[in-house]
Amino acid sequence: MKGQYLIGISVLASALLGGVQPVIAEAPMPLNPAFNVRRLLVTHRCYGCDLTGADLSGTRLSGVDLRNANLQDADLSSANLVGADLSKANLTNANLTGAVLTNASLASATLDGVNFSQAHLYYVDVTGASMQNLNLTGAQMMGTSISVGGEAGPVEPGLPTQSIPDGPLPNFPPPPPPLFDIPIEAVPDY
Questions:
Q1: What is the pLDDT of residue 161?
Q2: InterPro entries from the entry (predicted)?
Q3: Burial of 180: CB neighbours in 10 Å, binned 0-12, 13-18, 19+
Q4: Which residue has the higher pLDDT, 145 or 153?
Q5: Which domains are assigned to the chain?
Q6: Which of 42, 37, 41, 11 is nearest to 26 (CA)?
Q7: Residue 41 Cα distances to 48, 60, 107, 126, 172, angstroms
């Protein structure tokens, strides 16, 4: 019972102090995906938690810590995952249609059956990831080593590589809307 209060206090303190991390050990995640979704949205951290089948479509998850998380069958369509750490996460059969992953880490993640159609995969680390039966229809990729027919790995010296073409860079998606829409004139001068 005492441990539950400590976890609740640390989550509340983290939310109120804007990212100041509590100084307690990482508590094991409850097996309730709905609780873990709320925890993720408040703290942007959910290390090793169970988010099986969670609906996170359209959410702003920039910089989240989802290392070792179970996101099997989760809906992350149109989610903003810029700078997200999903290392060693299980995303089997997850839906990432239209998701934005820029400078994200999927290192050693399980990506089997993931739907990346229309996704933006810019400089995503997929080193050691399991990638069977991916749907990449219409996906835009740059600096992301996803190979056809096997796992991604380092390029051997002497093999031809694809270079970025001359001219303008591809159109990146617009940034997500701000969390708070407060008109400047509504903010008091101090």
A1: 47
A2: 5peptide_repeat, Pentapeptide-BTB/POZ_domain
A3: exposed
A4: 145
A5: 1-150 (2.160.20.80)
A6: 11
A7: 15, 9, 23, 24, 25
